[in-house]
Amino acid sequence: MATQDHVIIVNPFHPETLERLDSAYQTHHLWKLERPEQEQLLKSLEGQCRVAASASWNCDPVIYRLKSLKLIAAFGVGVDGIDFETTRNLKIRVTNTPGVLDDGVADLAMALILATMRNLIRANSFSRDNLWKDGPFPFGTSMAGKTLGIAGLGRIGSAIAMRAEPFKVKIAYHNRQPKQVPYTFCQSLEDLAEISDILVSVLPGGAETDNLINTNVLKKLGPSGIFINVGRGNSVDDEALIEALRSGAVQAAGLDVYKNEPQIPDAYKILENVILLPHIGSATVETRCAMGNLVFDNIRAFFEHDTLVSEVM
Ligand code: NAP
Ligand code: 8YV
Q1: Could you say which ligand is closest to the alpha carbon of residue 111?
Q2: What amino acid positions are annotated as catalytic residues?
Q3: In angstroms, rounded to a whole number, what is the distance separating the alpha carbons of residues 254 and 182?
């Protein structure tokens, strides 16, 4: 049976978790209302509602008008949808869903690396279009002996490195700070790109990473280089990447994330040497369920013990 505690759902996420929250709490779906009704709802909940749940990549700032708000429980690890300047000023705590999606996203990064290097998407069309009878499919590139550069060796980046090791690649990385790991640290993204055959970005979103993957980095990656992005789309200068793919300044790319999702620049779609996925890094039944559980656990811990399981510090 539902408790009397109120939870506002700001922007929608995983439907199964929303249903679970609906059953457990007095929920109010802000995203289903027009602006004037939203303002009315927030007024009516003032003083009674302390908790909001939201997608981590999109959180309507109207929620910050609720003065009694103490917690935003975000679904997702990348919290670029949250305005931290405001939450800090208003002493609103924020939780996200770290760790539980590392395996899912790292699996997808490996799939993109292999699909890009072995041209799997084109090979599938080649077979279906009966082109095999006219001659063999062009050769791909081997992983063994190559250098995999990871931009953003955090939780997901480390899960990618662990998966890549048995493929007999050398591993290098770039973070702002070096870590105690047996991989080569590079001071800059340019240095990393220069020694990498495959450059995977797992960089988070936000102003600090805007367009870090630019013409200089792609030039260093070079004409046989592969670029993979499973981090955030803002970190890529799209014009630079499109031109590099078009001119052969890099060999190929595999992208899961984009600047203005769900829009993908048309210029990518006419290129044969890029694989375009619709942000599915964490899109497995198991991973999304684990993310939802963590949102739920944070809200429950807040109401029952005034603690949090995974606060963003
Ligand atoms: P994490 O553990 O915090 O790792 C992020 C890494 O990036 C850290 O090692 C950090 O090291 C480095 N970093 C941060 N800012 C940097 C900068 N300006 N320059 C260079 N390195 C920087 O985060 P995570 O859990 O692995 O998640 C990473 C990101 O993946 C998320 O923020 C999200 O955007 C994205 N993601 C995508 C999907 C998908 O479906 N494709 C799913 C989940 C997450 P330093 O602090 O030392 O710099
Ligand atoms: C999204 C993600 O949450 O956690 C993140 O930062 O990017 C993903 O897991 C997911 O795509 C929800 O649509």
Answers
A1: 1
A2: 232, 261, 279
A3: 26
Taking the alpha carbons at both ends of the chain, their separation in whole angstroms is 33
Please give the number of the atom of ligand 1 that sits closest to the Cα of 230.
41
Pocket-forming residues, ligand 2, beta carbon under 6 Å: 56, 76-78, 101, 279, 281-282
**Chain segment 48-85, per-residue pLDDT in tens:** 999 999 999 999 999 999 999 999 999 999 999 999 99
From ligand 1's centre to the CA of 55, what distance in Å?
17
Give the max Cα distance, the chain.
Answer: 73
Contact 301, 295 (CB under 8 A): no
pLDDT in tens, 10-23: 999 999 999 999 99
- Going by alpha carbons, the residue nearest to atom 43 of ligand 1 is 77
Burial class (CB in 10 A: 0-12, 13-18, 19+), 176: exposed
Spacing, Cα 171 to ligand 2 middle (Å): 25
Structural domains for the chain: 6-100+286-305 (3.40.50.720), 102-276 (3.40.50.720)
Q: What is the DSSP letter of 139?
A: P
Protein residue closest via CA to atom 29 of ligand 1: 204
Report field, pTM of the whole predicted structure over 0.90: yes
Distance 157 CA to ligand 1 centre (A): 8
Does the pLDDT at position 202 exceed 80? yes
- Give the CA dihedral 173, 282, 228, 205, nearest 10 degrees: -70
Q: What is the pLDDT of residues 218-236, one digit of tens each?
A: 999 999 999 999 999 999 9
